[in-house]
Model the fold of this input.
Amino acid sequence: MKRFFFFFLLLLLYLSGSYNILCANNTDGNNDRVTIEQSNKQLSFNDFLDGVRYAYVELDPQDQERIDRSGSILFDHFANYLIGLGFEAVALTSTQKAELRSKAGSLCDIAKVKIEVAIGKETFSDHIMQFSTCQKDYFRFHCPDVLQNDVTLLNELYGVWTSMCNYKITYNKAKRLELPVTSRSSDWTEKKLLKYFEQKKVAPLEGVYEKILESEVDKTKYKVALKRDQNGNYDVIYLSGARNYEDWGEGELIGQVTGTSGSPSHYKASWYLPDKSLEDEVYMSVDRHNMIYFAFPKAGNLRYKYFKLFPKKQTQSEQKLKATGTGIAISADGYIVTSYHVIEGGDFLEVNINEGDYTASYNARLVVKDVNNDLAVLKIDDIRFEGLPDISYSFGTQAAQVGENVFTLGYPLITSMGSELKLTDGLISAQTGYKGDVSTYQVSVPVQPGNSGGPLFNRNGSLIGIIKAKHSKAENVTYAVKSRNILNLIELLPESVLLSNNQQLVNQPLTSQVKALRRYVFLIKVLEQ
Done:
């Protein structure tokens, strides 16, 4: 039975007594053994060849790895054949291909070549060579010649190639094909955009960005602009720096960004790849340091990183601090419970942890809220966040008894008291709160502005409530929302959260409990433009 293989396998198969290869074709009509199939009948093969300068041999990843590691006498032989046609360079290895992509001003300067052959027990036949253009048209040549597996094979192969295609390339840039302009172009230039962004009140993402170089291969300073359209989406406008710079015009649309439900820092995007093909499964994220990231799942999670050149976005420390509060993490993946009144009306949410010598700050977003019970669940939404240790406290569901010892951890009055985590303690004073509210406890724990949203623990290290408010006309009277109300809100989360029932803090001294719990207690900062 015949089987098809890529050309690069020929050397391995030759050494073992069997192998396969591809073949090219001539176009002078003198060899009636050769047939040609082409996708675009209006395109002349000879004109196409005269418009290219380089050849790029297409291989699958496994084959490419073998060529990179061991080389190939046969591929070198084939490369010499292509050079003989008039190509200025032939790229076989990954290094050669990277160099070719860097020096070719246009992808249309490159012809992609793929070869195949059918093998029998002692023979090789049905040679195929395919040339592909930058516009994805192809010329597929077929030669039925039968070659014997003997010592003359290399010479016979070269003879087949030259008899099928012996056209001598005479490079003529006027014959070079062109990539199409993307779906929308504009007259925006970097100069015009800078003036526009300087004079207008821009949306948070609008501006000029430059790609951060993470590879020694790609050293270009790639610039794009994000500009919001009338529908509230963002056009990604190409400005400069493409490796195939002759294929792209300043002002050409290279992508578009749309929002995703419930997330102010994650977006869905479409993106035009260097060959102008559209990739619609792209995701963009934003961090607090003016960095945006485009991720391409279909390309092995390839990621492009850009920083904002202009206008300089205010850092969160420069934005107006509207309110502060406290929150408690209920899962290792970053779900945090706090009071809704703490984060209400904020443009940006930042959560900070201060665990001894370890401090960190992350972006967060509101996931669900319960206005009636003054509760909210946030989620850390930051690419730098790598998770928390497994939750070490338990979640108390039984009603606390009057007289129980309780304590809270929080960040009160940070402007005057500092950002170190503070402990205050007291007792359960009543099982109902303000005006007999059965959803809250009254406790004798002293609190100040900034304690709102903080956890209320009993002496077994169980979370039994969330600090809500203090009585303005009574000394040391504080109200805390009971934990059962948190359970109802957790049911509304978009993903299931398994609450901890860890009992390791039971019977531990208060100092040990605080040391274990402080890693889950966050300072909540609410910022506005």
User: Anything to note?
Assistant: The radius of gyration is 33 Å. The chain is about 15% helix and 35% strand. Residues 459 and 509 are 9 Å apart (CA to CA). Residues 1-30 have pLDDT under 50 and may be disordered.
